[in-house]
Amino acid sequence: MFWLLPGCELGSGGGGGGGGNKHTATVTLLVNIGDAPVDRVVALDMTINQVALTSSSGGTTNLLSAPAKVEFRHIAGSLQPLATTTLSQDTFTQATITLSATAHATVLDNAGVPRPQQTVTLGTTSFTVGLGSIAVSTTPMVLNLDFNMSSSVNVDPSFNVTITPSFVGALVPIVPTSPEVESGKFEDVDGTITGISSPNFTLAVEQAANSLTIATNTSTQFVGVAGLSGLAASNVVEVTGAVQSDGSLLATKVEALDLTPGGLEVNGMVTSITGAPATSVQEVVQNEATPTLTQPTLGGLFNVNGMDTAAYAEDTDEVDFTGLTLPAFTATTLTKGQQIRVTTSTPSATTITTGHVTLQQQAVTGQVLSSSGSGQGTTGVIILNLPADSYLTLLTGETQVTVFQQTSTRFVGITSVGAGDTVRARGLLLFNSGATPHWQMVASRLTPP
Asked: Is a pLDDT exceeding 50 seen at residue 211?
């Protein structure tokens, strides 16, 4: 989904609304993507040239100050900030997304071998989403524009990729205290600090149209660094937080990923492993952050050495392991298909040696074989049958995933899960050779596909 969050920064004029003397509202735009059932697509990047809102009087307002290239797979089931801008108070009826004609996809063939950066044929470069008739005043809002990969992407037997973009949208008020990304929360946003003016800092996000100004306060948790004073321009960090009632972005957690000037972090899906335990891996690049010009290519293949000596961790911020006994994420249990983050102080566009490997949340989609839970707030076990073209099936031969539903697992767009339903689960995915099925996920979210 795309998100738009208008906050309330009172001012004069602005925006292409319907004339008259208007106030303005700070707007934050974020994007989310559904992934099933075209699971063999392990990276998909498209450049968003423009997102324009149309008012009831016919005026239009472009929300992007610059085009933004976005990789959609790594944000499956979640949202990321795309832009901040100002928006005139008005009544809006539709949003139009305009894409560049150039797009790329990395797909898995039937043997699970990645075919990187296949040229994508776009059926259209413009798509309009009806919003109803939504009045924007002084209350922050969020625009959800959900790019549905399942109905948008076609991969033919020769692995040529055609996309006819399909979106649905909604413009709704934010809820600053909500745990849901649909209501204004943002999670695991990676970027490079470009400036600090305490208690705020500016973050350059590779897949955003402009830098984000993020506030901190005494409740902000800092990891890997004592506080804001320990950070500097060019540091690579990961930020979780929420949009506040005044439209500002407040960080609840800031994690220092690399404090070395010129460091690099790369997020991607593991597609091959050398050694047992792993000594090196190859991953498909889905996101990266660095202050340097030495950057890996989105959708490209990236080699990571030092996997046997690196420190391993799991990003459990949104995932609850209470009451579960699962294998630790290590060089021994690392498996193809897992989403990982690696960091280095010596950037390269093709190969690095890492000292830190972190398991990241990812999404899987399948048909429910059985479910013992009874809705949000309860615990249960869900067995998912994976589609034949699931990236997990193609990479590992596995056809099922056990999904652990915890009391903190959020149900979004659904109220229950039953046999025969097709659902998308997002969480941490672990490989347990002593269990059946071998794949086990602790879910943070369950949604429709």
From this structure: yes
pLDDT value of position 218: 97
The domain limits of the chain are 2-178, 185-258, 264-359, 362-447
Tell me the pLDDT tens digit for each residue of 36-59. 346 899 999 999 999 999 999 999
Compute the distance between CA of residue 33 and CA of residue 314 in angstroms, rounded to an integer: 23
Amino acid at 243: V
| Mean pLDDT, rounded, for 193-199 | 97
Q: Domain 362-447 falls in which CATH fold? A: OB fold (Dihydrolipoamide Acetyltransferase, E2P) (2.40.50)
Q: Check for a shared fold between 185-258 and 362-447.
A: yes
- Apex CA 297: angle with CA 308 and CA 291, to 5°? 80
SS3 54: strand
Buried b (16+ CB within 10 A) or exposed e, 19-49: eeebbbbbbbbbbbbbbbbbbbbbbbbbbbb
Pairing between β-strand 249-258 and β-strand 236-243 as defined by DSSP bridges: antiparallel
- Please, what is the average pLDDT of the chain? 88
Q: What amino acid occupies position 351?
A: T
Q: For residue 214, report the phi and psi dihedrals to the nearest 5 degrees.
A: -120, 130
- H-helix or E-strand containing 149? helix 149-152
Q: What is the mean pLDDT of residues 60-69?
A: 90
Task: Count the neighbouring beta carbons within 10 Å of the beta carbon of residue 424.
Answer: 24
Band the pLDDT of 270: cuts 50, 70, 90.
very high
Sign of CA dihedral 249, 254, 256, 259: positive
Correct CATH for 185-258 of 2.30.42.10, 2.40.50.320, 3.40.190.10, 3.30.43.10: 2.40.50.320
Q: Are 176 and 233 in contact (CB under 8 A)?
A: no
This prediction has a pTM of 0.91
Cβ atoms of residues 291 and 345 within 8 Å: no
Query: What length does the chain have?
Result: 449
- d(CA 208, CA 249) in angstroms, rounded, equals 15
Average pLDDT score over residue span 189-204: 96
Q: What span, in angstroms and rounded, lies between the C-alpha atoms of 356 and 372?
A: 36
